[in-house]
Amino acid sequence: MNEAMIEMHHVFKTYPSQISALSDITLEILPGEFAFIVGPSGSGKSTLLRILFCAERPTSGEVVVHGIHITQPDFKKIYQLRRTMGIVSQDFKLLRDRTVNENVAFALEITGHIREEAKSKASEILRRVGLEEREGDSILALSAGEQQRVAIARALVNSPPLLLADEPTGNLDARMTLDVMEIFTDLHQKGTTIVFATQFTGLIKRYSYRAIRLLDGRKADSHKVEEVKATG
Ligand SMILES: Nc1ncnc2c1ncn2[C@@H]1O[C@H](COP(=O)(O)OP(=O)(O)OP(=O)(O)O)[C@@H](O)[C@H]1O
Ligand SMILES: [Mg+2]
Fold it and tell me: pLDDT of 175-225, one tens digit each?
């Protein structure tokens, strides 16, 4: 049997403000799958991803990623787990006092790469997202779309087996969106598991990957790709 990469069992998340962001989510994502998490603004997509990358704890329910129960936190295990994840946050989470190259290289340095090697690998991936001319610039000098591409480069530079991306094309124009989707498709073909949250139903229609639809924090009954296409 193929062990799931991600399992969520009856997951609820209520914020201290009493807002119920997720309600009884049960799902499974297999290794190598490309899964869109789709739903309108406020439907719980970011909350679901933040739980997967351990930035948020569920109020109740069980979450298992890579065989590790992240609802029973063992910091050492969670640290190891996060090293297997590429994370693109909706708000980028870049180091604003560092350059573009430093932001990407930093992800390698903390996993033990020496600085020169990290810098050159960072350059390589920045070329891939079209930012080779901006490497020495401060993050503050970049547009939102450029910052988003730095965040994508940083998530990919370690070649993680699991990529968790929250609206990674939300600030990109049509051409850049296609370029980034091509990178993600290529990674998917090489076996990377990808979870991609978006409110853009256009993307889901264009790429026939699985789509899990959220509505007001609940998983909609059906999440077959065809039905999302029909209703999206
Ligand atoms: N830190 C927080 N504290 C309190 N409420 C929150 C917090 N984060 C999210 N929420 C609420 O939880 C609900 C789900 O939010 P979430 O950010 O997960 O939605 P989303 O689907 O990612 O939306 P968007 O498409 O706008 O990014 C919303 O009602 C939101 O206001
Ligand atoms: Mg969001």
Answer: 999 999 999 999 999 999 999 999 998 999 999 899 999 999 888 754 444
Residue with tokens 């993680």: 160
| Ligand 1 atom with least separation from CA of 39 | 21
Q: Which ligand has an atom closest to residue 216 CA?
A: 1
Strands (E) in the chain, as ranges, are 6-14, 20-29, 34-38, 60-65, 68-69, 85-88, 162-166, 193-198, 210-215, 218-219
Q: Is the confidence at residue 81, as pLDDT, over 50?
A: yes
Q: Closest by alpha carbon to 7, among 58, 56, 59, 68?
A: 68
Neighbouring CB atoms inside 10 A of 83's CB total: 13
Nearest CA to ligand 1 atom 28: 42
Q: Where are the domains of the chain?
A: 1-84+160-232, 95-159
Tell me the average pLDDT of the chain.
92
Identify any residues that bridge with 75 across adjacent strands, giving them in sequence order.
Answer: none
Whole-model pTM?
Answer: 0.93
CATH 3.40.50.300 fits 1-84+160-232, yes or no: yes
CB atoms within 10 A of CB 189: 10
Q: Is the minimum distance from the CB of 14 to ligand 1 under 6 angstroms?
A: no
pLDDT tens digits, one per residue of 31-49: 999 999 999 999 999 999 9
Give the SS3 label for residue 58. coil
